[in-house]
Amino acid sequence: MSEKSNCAAVDCKNEAHLQCPTCIKLNKTEGSFFCSQDCFKKSWGVHKANHGNHREPYEPFKTFKYAGPLRAVYPLSPRRQVPEEIQRPDYAETGIPKSEFMARSSEIKVLNSQEIEGIKKACKITREVLDIAAKAVRVGITTDEIDRIVHEATIERGAYPSPLNYNYFPKSCCTSLNEVICHGIPDQRPLANGDILNIDVSCFYRGFHGDANATYLVGDVDEVGQKLVQVTRECLDLAIAAVI
Q: Which stretches of 46-186 are assigned E, i.e. beta strand?
């Protein structure tokens, strides 16, 4: 406060030392100063009308400790629907992957030729969907819109988007931005120039899951970001070469 003001509470003429935090955000000064928290609380019922239709951003996890500057942008869009004729994994309705729990073992199952072909088909669909999502990456698009593109491309191919309701995951793909390591939830944040975006797509087709992901540069990414993506890709190529 650069100038002295009197408390805005009715019948209080004390000098004000505090300002309403919402008024500060809205850049409002008239009637926003109070002498004490007590006067502010007593006046809140009347004072809040000065804020108009202002609402604080919806934040369901206010105590969550973020690792960096990135913040989720709520609310999330409604859960996307899947046509009845598309085969679903066992968790599609319940959110609980019972077959996964039952299959846990220290032994690696050896698949027959028919099962291998099933996996190849699921992976081919997944790669197609990932490539479609990649073409949509640009400054200004939201990760929720990318999720919509992934969802629609998946069901167009007769597949189910594997992430959807897996352990209650709310979206059809994972979009991990900047400091988010993996499994980021698509939301309303528009991609910004300089972002690094990983898109993780998985499709369930005729009993098999395909899974693929890639990291994309959004607009003009600095040298550090470009180097990170380049070295990570080189590491992946070396790992693939070690097992084929």
A: 160-161, 174-177
Q: Is the pTM of this model over 0.90?
A: no
Distance CA 68, CA 66 (A): 6
C-alpha closest to that of 137 among 110, 107, 175, 83: 175
CA angle at 109 for the pair 105 and 114, rounded to the nearest 5°? 145
Q: DSSP assignment of 107-155, as one string? A: SPPPP-HHHHHHHHHHHHHHHHHHHHHHHT--TT-BHHHHHHHHHHHHH
Cβ-contact 158, 86 below 8 angstroms: yes
Query: Model confidence over 139-185: pLDDT tens digits?
Result: 999 999 999 999 999 999 999 999 999 999 999 999 999 999 999 99
Asked if 195 and 218 touch (Cβ cutoff 8 Å), the reply is yes
Q: Are 5 and 14 in contact (CB under 8 A)?
A: no
pLDDT tens digits for range 66-107: 888 998 998 899 999 999 999 999 999 999 999 988 888 888
| Residues 6 or more apart whose Cβ sits within 8 Å of residue 65 | none
Question: Which residues 6+ apart lie within 8 Å of 36 measured at CB?
Answer: 7, 14, 17, 18
Rounded Cα gap, residues 206 and 118, in angstroms: 7
Query: Scanning the structure block, which residue is given the tokens 């030729």?
Result: 113
Residues forming a β-bridge with 34: 18
**Cα dihedral sign, 139-141-146-152:** negative
